[in-house]
Specification:
CATH superfamily of the largest domain in chain A: P-loop containing nucleotide triphosphate hydrolases
Largest interface: A-B, 72 and 82 residues
Number of strands of chain B: 21
Strand order of the largest sheet of chain B: 9-16-15-17-19-14-20-21
Shape of chain A: globular
Structural class of chain A: alpha+beta
Largest sheet of chain A: 10 strands, mixed
Number of strands of chain A: 28
Number of domains of chain B: 3
CATH architecture of the largest domain in chain B: 3-Layer(aba) Sandwich
Number of helices of chain A: 14
CATH topology of the largest domain in chain A: Rossmann fold
Distance between the termini of chain A: 77 Å
Helix content of chain B: 25-40%
Largest sheet of chain B: 8 strands, mixed
Shape of chain B: elongated
CATH topology of the largest domain in chain B: Rossmann fold
Structural class of chain B: alpha/beta
Oligomer: heterodimer
CATH architecture of the largest domain in chain A: 3-Layer(aba) Sandwich
Amino acid sequence: MEGKITGIAGPTVTLAMPGLKMYDRVLAGAARLFGEVIRLGPEGAVAQVYESTRGMGVGEPAISLGKPLTVRLGPGLLGAIYDGLQRPLPEVAAATGPFILPGSQWPALAEERVWAFVPLKQPGDKVAVGEPYGAIEEDGTRHFLFADQAGTVAAMASGSITLAQPLAELVGGGTLTAAQEWPIRIPRPWRRKFAPTTPLITGQRVIDFLFPLARGGTAMLPGGFGTGKTVLEQAIAKFAEVDIVVYVGCGERGNEMADMLEEFATLTDPWTGRTLMRRTIMVANTSNMPVAAREASIYTAVTMAEYYRDMGCHVLLLADSISRWAEALREISSALEEMPGEEGYPTYLASRLASFFARAGMVETMSGKIGSLSMILSVSPPGGDLTEPTTQACLRAAGAFLMLDTGLAHRRHFPAINWFQSYSLYDQEMTAYFGKEVDPAWAGLKRQTHTLLQREEKLREVAEIVGAEGLQDADHLVMHTAARLRQEFLRQNTFDSDAFSTPKLTLEKAARLLDQHTAAEARLARGDFLTDILREMA
Amino acid sequence: MRLAEHVYSTVSAIRSQLLLVEKVAEVRMGEIVRVRRPDGREIEGEVLLVSGETVLVQLFGESRGLDISATAVIFTDSVKQAPLAETVLHRMFDGSFRPIDGLPLFVPEAWAPITGHPINPSSRARPQEFIETGFATIDGLNTLVKGQKLPIFSCAGLPAREMVAAILKNARVIEAKGESGGGFALVFVALGLTYHEYAFYLDAIRAMRSDYAAFVNLADDPVVERLMAPRFGLTVAEYLAFEKGRDVLVVITDMTNYCDALREVATAREELPGRRGYPGYMYSELASLYERAGRIKGRPGSITMLPVVTMPEDDITHPIPDLTGYITEGQIVLSRELHQRGIFPPVDVLPSLSRLMQQGIGPGRTRADHRAIANLLYRHYARGRDLRNLEVIVGRDGMSEADRGHLDFAKAFEEEFVQQTGGRRTVGQTLDAGLALLRRFGFDSP
């Protein structure tokens, strides 16, 4: 279908092209820029264009691809670096140089790469939609290939294959190939969803011990600038106990992405020993890349994450930061002259976010496997003000709230997670799990830690009135232990070997500190001097 | 593609610096137009919005003297481009790239659109080469590296410009004519400065005697040019860095004036205002400037950016410093309190940060003990600062000996380490001074 451009406003263009459907993909202008139809009306169709419209002319042609915005799913996703529209950035760079020029198109998967294919169905077998008919060994991950149509297998390939060739022929003429397309705004289906039961180990003591996350759960990470959101997200991407990590740099810094890419190519996964990049898919849509592609980037990422979930993998999606996505939504909404809600954000911000969060979960897949998709999204509230719309919309949907504290960050206490304000709704189940799997003392030690930190805070208020000298010895001991908990336990240096801690090590560390405290309390009660006790503890 | 310029005299409305032109065919988004006044003089403008045959044009100058019937609008069929050549160096231009030093424009070797193109994230080289600024608070605690963007958050009346001047004078930005080949160049962009401030910078630039190009938009120059000057500057910087292999330092002052100009223009366009009246897209707008800093794999040259942001009402949560901080790789925050106590540079190290420090320091770059010294200085100074609040309530005598030690350390840190009356320090001297301070108070063990 062909038509032409009749109007341009920021990232949106008006098209004269009868017959377009909502969310159809279009190529607009002489430069053939990617767009998606988001409104139909008497004045024509309005498409949001995923690249800068600068230089685009009225009267230039536009064509419709007759299908919605999709991603290509198949072997070769792992280790790839994409932009928000699933264009492979290293390949684009090799073809067009270090700057991204408008209109660059590139296949998302290497079509000619050879894979070792193991069929799971034989000629004569029946295959249903969503059923695995074969598998490929992809960088240590067993990559199942799902049928996108049902039928009876007539012929089946085996051994070396490429994405371009058909792998199975069905009776009556259909073929199955290794790669398939999936529209990014439609969640991939599952059979059943479960309440989260197993923890998502992040390797960060303060999270795993005090605010545990769950596989299939969601968490938000709000914090002002400089509170270490990106560093924490990257640390979790490195150390989390999951099979696959999908990391979205959504409207963030290019230099930080470069840093991360370099690091991930050299570091190894602490759980399996393979290179980190081999379990990672990166989506990099930095702040200076087009706004509409930023809006699409989180959907591109979550669709790829769901694809691996369907193979029975435990997948973690990290997005940094969801606020930039919300701003992109606002920018597009304002170009459409929609009625604004709070702070100019469209009123559908909360419902869009909620349905995005709902794509997480522990599920039984269409093929009967158990897989999970967890999400950790950072939020960048303007001025650190948590009452702003994006934070509030996330709060209603997220299962854990890990608040980053500017005060802690200024004191270089990282991860700067505030232990009074943060919470996890998975706390009870996960603590029970750790009590069973790691140590029965888990819940007790955790309670003691919370109590000590709270008492420290109270005592500090008292000390501000009566002076530190006015406190009793028992109080001094509490202050001392709480300080050690903060310095040696809650704080974790991402740049050395302390960066990652298993639940067992986390518990041992907490137990050691708290046991010393209990012993010291007992000695104090017997009448020993505090100074002696503290000296011996050091 | 049209081959000739089109002239229209179908202006239907003029509102502040916006022009509505009707019945225009085949216009481009961002296309440059020339608007001819009835008296024959021309001003430039840019296409902002196209709806069918109606076009909204943003003027780059004043609309005074324009009328509806006699004004002609000439569509040029091209977006705004910057002329480029190495002879741009040692020259000064206004916000529209017109020479203001009395010489004719150089002969361009190339042209490039002033909005630039985003650097492919996978083509970026990780910034890791240390730049020595001579200031202990930056070199020691918030290290700057090549390709970084590190703003100075100042307040009205604080000596940000003296600091910038000192950095221009002292920075061993890179060994000039070293391995990078092309040498060093400064691109200076003045936005909405008073003449007094501008003259100060001018002296500093002339005194440093290295290659520079300046884009100057003073307080009484057109507001729309204030939005273009940094783009011209950065397009020139990209050319010098990535085509000519130079290490370019871009100093933009003052970004607050840029944002205010953006608000003024956005309001005139009747756009929906966001926080404090600034447009909702200010984050993307600022990112389109700041993200042009960086290095590219396999190419010599780099763009390092040192923007100055004056925080309105000394408020770091104001949208301008706030959005800046979310984009840049850290910030150097100046403190009114330190300034009032006569400390120069008045850098408050606690809210200051350099996100790329980790890559720039350590053995082979600065010194093996750099990270450890910086961590100790931070920890003990933060403790000392916390205790100051306590001191106000309970008095010094009510505090323990250890706490008094921290109070004294914080004071000594500000007066001896932060304070730099004696001029530049090498990074070795900075670290030695930090270590000596820690030793004096017995804080040198982790």
